[in-house]
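Reopening this ticket.

The earlier resolution said the output was attached, but the attachment link was broken on my side. Pasting everything inline this time so it's all in one place.
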Amino acid sequence: MGQTRVDLLHLLEDLRDAYPGALEETILTEIVANSLDSGARRIRLWTEPAQATLTVADDGSGMQRRELSRYHDIAASSKTRGQGIGFAGVGIKLGLLLCSEVVTETRRGKTHVATRWHLASRHRAPWSWVPPPGRVEGRGTAVTLKLANPLSPLLDPGFLEAALLRHYPALFDSSFESVLAQHYPQGIEVEVNDRRLERSGVDAAEVALLEVRLARKRKPSAAGHMLREPLPLPEDRRGIAISTLGKVIKRGWDWLGVSPTAPERVGGLIEVPALAECLTLNKADFIRTGPRGATYLAYRKALQEAVSRQLAEWGDARDAAEATRRRVARPVERDLERVLIDLADEFPLLATLVERREGGQRKLPIGRGGEANARDLVLASLSAATEAEAESRANGEPVTAVAEAPPAEAEREQAPESRSEGIVLPGPSGPRRPARYGLSIQFESRAADPELGRLVESTVWVNDAHPAYRRAAASRSEGYHLALAVALALAPLAADPASEHGFVTAFLERWGAALEEPRRGRRR
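Inline output:
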């Protein structure tokens, strides 16, 4: 009888490639994430260059002997999805690629054990029980990486500090204490070679505090800040970063779908703890399908409005020409719903933008056609600027976005079991139909780019500096140009290179037919 074998080296290399950034940063951030998930209040890192070792120790819950034994298995985890930011000890497993051995010591109650682990060949990663080296104080877990390269950046304290500040900035910013207090009630202390990383505030020429509250909630569900400098910011500080439970997941302007006139001078950080349940398997991105995807996209829409409002107050928002372009794009966005639904069966790869289930499903209340329903979904749409908000701005207080309470009729339609911490998910009742996941059209100027547009996240960015767009605007045929730009941007996602022409042709055919068909009637 044959036996299935696993090429561990190949598997770990594929797992490594699933993460953005350098392997050393991935290992470090994942080990720290596992410490945070274990309930640690204090995390200590120290290096021993003479022995080429890095040790990360915490005072978390620790592990029992059986848990430590399973910890060496691939794809084994005791974690519950949505309750943490670590990925089943993947940092330790990836450490096998860089280390001659990994020593793990853990202590919980009367249990105090340790193991030594290494990658012996492509198919074997043996481990054995060893006497505890005594790096754990009281309770918790300590991981010691014996690096094969004595010049590895993981042995540099400066690299460790910079990586932690870049990937976990909310843990070291005093303004995030309130929004993270529920998850880290005693705060988090981090030490590198016995030097504590201190908390500090935001240091910038202009700083604006942002808060998003759920309806009838006193504490903000999302909080953060935006900053603006007179000179361009460093590359790693440009754009808005979104973090959950302290760990930055995405950074920049593309994911948000909003761009100021001077994107290189504006940055910021927004912490949304509730989005931990929307993380992908490798915790490096967010899910965009199903109820979790709907939650993420609804939060994203609320953050878009908060950021856009602050940019408008700074005078850094798009000008009147941008508003004109938006008016032209809105009819095309409305037509996209029907076009994408019609094409989803023929081009299944569009499932990232359209999800269809057998018999259809209830239309999720997101996207441009469902702004009112989006408030019911996440209860986080921002209210219009009021006199009280203007007064708080004058007093230097945070800009607060308070969601409106949903109508009583909408509350009756929601099933009680569909509510989760104030976020209302689509109920089981009502008509079942396909759902469109918020594909929108935005504009940017890229004079040297020959492409008409590009797809980023769920946004098609149309190049308004392209000669073809200027010609279309002059002849008042922007609508056709936008449809063509969207088709060309979606083609690489929907079809292989040999079939892209067929997709563009089918897309324009459906788009043209949408003009001939009557609009859907209003819902009764």
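Reporter confirms the inline version is readable. The first strand starts at residue 42 and ends at 48. The chain is about 30% helix and 20% strand.
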